[in-house]
Write the structure tokens for this entry.
Amino acid sequence: MVITTDMLMDGTDFIVSEVGPRRAGRKAMAANLSDIAAMAAVPMAVVVSVALPHLATQGTDSPSTFAEQLYLGLRDVADAFGVPIVGGDTNSWASPLVISVTAFGEVTERGAVLRSGAKAGDWIFVTGPLGGSIRGHHLDFTPRVREALALHAAVELRAMCDISDGLAADLNHILEESNCGAVLVAEAIPVSADAVELSRTSGKSPLQHALGDGEDFELVFTVSASDGEKLLRTPPIAGLVKIGECVESGLWLEVAGIREPLAPTGWVHEL
Amino acid sequence: MVITTDMLMDGTDFIVSEVGPRRAGRKAMAANLSDIAAMAAVPMAVVVSVALPHLATQGTDSPSTFAEQLYLGLRDVADAFGVPIVGGDTNSWASPLVISVTAFGEVTERGAVLRSGAKAGDWIFVTGPLGGSIRGHHLDFTPRVREALALHAAVELRAMCDISDGLAADLNHILEESNCGAVLVAEAIPVSADAVELSRTSGKSPLQHALGDGEDFELVFTVSASDGEKLLRTPPIAGLVKIGECVESGLWLEVAGIREPLAPTGWVHEL
């Protein structure tokens, strides 16, 4: 059994006056199921507590509309994974919306995947394109629950994390807990269309967005080299990309064959 | 296994500028363990998510002081029951403090006590004096975890609730879910010293406070008449009081032998 809890707040995780309560609820549920996915567990049940803003600040016709839309958003994602909302606590107050979800998962026969199992020589993969999620993906992503289970059934996942802080930062969490390093290959990192679009105005390159932006909610994980070859030969899921390998120490980005230090913030000197 | 979740907010459940973060944390943990007690389960673990107010509004010297005091308050109560805080999510924002706790409990061999098991003829008990908790008890109460387990070991508890909305309201929850009624005996209801003190200025009687005030966090429960006699003969805990009996329907207060309807708000016409 694994447990995760994540609290989302209006103004921090979403702007409810812009995105509406349904998408806010959607994100709250998806972010929590993403944490269950990161451990390659099967989500079993969730509880949800909310502090609803008072009517005057909800921007909807009635308090039930706001609460119902929020609930529908939570259910949209929970239902997609067959996860019941088994309880909760509903409050209202004169401050912004807060949603707190706690999710329970059951680990498979292989056990939970932690952040601490990566070894030098491991291959590093991600489950999809990265960067620019602020353009909308951070609200509408699908948590990689099925992908994690399919991967964990196919091979032994040694360490895994969902990308919420950014690829470099979340990979660094794995490296710190596993006491090893990593080299990422710049050309191999899958860059999302949103990262490309954002780079037109942001002053950053698409790769910088892919390395540094948060809330992609894809998975980054490591496997042995032989399991990595197996995954490349017969990918159990779509979108799988090898982005680098674990080494003894440090976090590095290889650009055109040259290795540069990569900051855990996704920042690299030479880019 | 039982799960409960409860979200507490500054300005609703406590005024953090008056009571400080330690007592706020204390209450958040105690309220959740009280919900576990209400099912006669053994609390096993909790997760805690918080939205901390920004420093300027914390009224303390440093953010760590505020967060540490809050954590110490959570730990004060969790430690008293040997319950580990196994995870959580820490955020900060420009709005008031929010604390969301989710607690997990293991039921005993007798199973969880629900609200739905009361029957006409059952005796009704409470675990301690009621009313006036706003004077401080609502922050500093001890959740009745040990009492619930001692009672459930001694006899079969048929229905139970912790008193958070008020005796009449919470008993009414039991009656609605059990599809029966109850007669409370006015003279038998244990009135706290706080209820007496509060009645000096509130315009209400001490009994009205005992019936209607929320957040006593004592337990109200029903047992068969024979188990009730057993509890009176050999009380497994201190403070146990028989306050009435279940009947076919209605909620009634008997004052000097005369039965009057009692509103679930604790309000009675004749008082």
Residues 159 and 264 of chain B are 17 Å apart (CA to CA). Residues 123-261 of chain B form a domain with the Phosphoribosyl-aminoimidazole Synthetase; Chain A, domain 2 fold (CATH 3.90.650.10).
